[in-house]
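Posting for a labmate who doesn't have an account.
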Amino acid sequence: MALAAPAHSDDFDFAASGRRVFATEREALAAVCARIDAHFNAACRMILTSPGRVVCTGMGKSGHVARKIAATLASTGTPAFYVHPGEAAHGDLGMVTDADVVLALSYSGESDEILLLLPALRRQGNRVIAMTGNAASALAQEADVHLDVGVPVEACPLKLAPTSSTTASLAMGDALAVALLEARGFTRDDFARSHPAGALGRRLLLHITDVMHVGAEVPRVRPDASISQALVEMSSKRLGMTAVVDADGKLLGLYTDGDLRRSLDDDHVDLRHTRIDAVMTVAPKTIDAEALAVEAAQLMEAHKINALLVTDRDGRVVGALNIHDLLRARVV
């Protein structure tokens, strides 16, 4: 049954309660931070020198924290995954190899499901890092390394719901991940490779070649073409521009929708007879095919243009793109 709101709820100071939780958990984090010592160093070195992965496990709220730690480790250069201890005892332990390090979370250090796995892990030769709030617990005593995340008090006024303790465990997991990240020399490019669908991944991994139009999709005309012929090419390719190239495909100039508007305002321009090389933009902005797509977006923004030609080192036009291509790729 859902509990009814108490009669005095209108007068309850929710903000004060929330601030009290923050203050309690801040004190808990400070207490745990003071215990980051040689045991923490040993845990990091054990993981760093392991040829295998980090297998995170835990029951209940500790299990939720273990899942998050595994995800953070995996995304920052330390291969890791989560195994439910109950499922591990019924076959999933087969996912754990003898090269793996096991990171076991149990605040009490007495979770039966975790302790049940220890003999099998020992027989297989796995090293175990325990994260508990009780250094005298069975799990802490059996582990190769113990990380103490004990907190002075839970933020829950009933002292029942894991609150400060889960925050401390999460922070310890983050500390492990970041320390290992720094020790590995993990870079932004490394991070992007494990997040290809994210905004950072798209910015650091997506190249011009991934979004540009090539071949017959690139609008091109010769310098002796009339403006009207260039317009036909622009309309058929739908990029809002056309390159003007010589017989070898080298870029001579660019004609855009903006140039067309200026041509229409010029009484001396005849769309059917004026050559395109008389009204084109000479030496337009271009980009290299190996550049990042985000560089194209930055170039367009800086020069207030909506399209770019892609050229090779010899100045030949090899592709084209516009702002809509970048929008579809979610680069901007």
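Reply:
Got it, the structure tokens are right above this. The CA atoms of residues 76 and 182 lie 10 Å apart.
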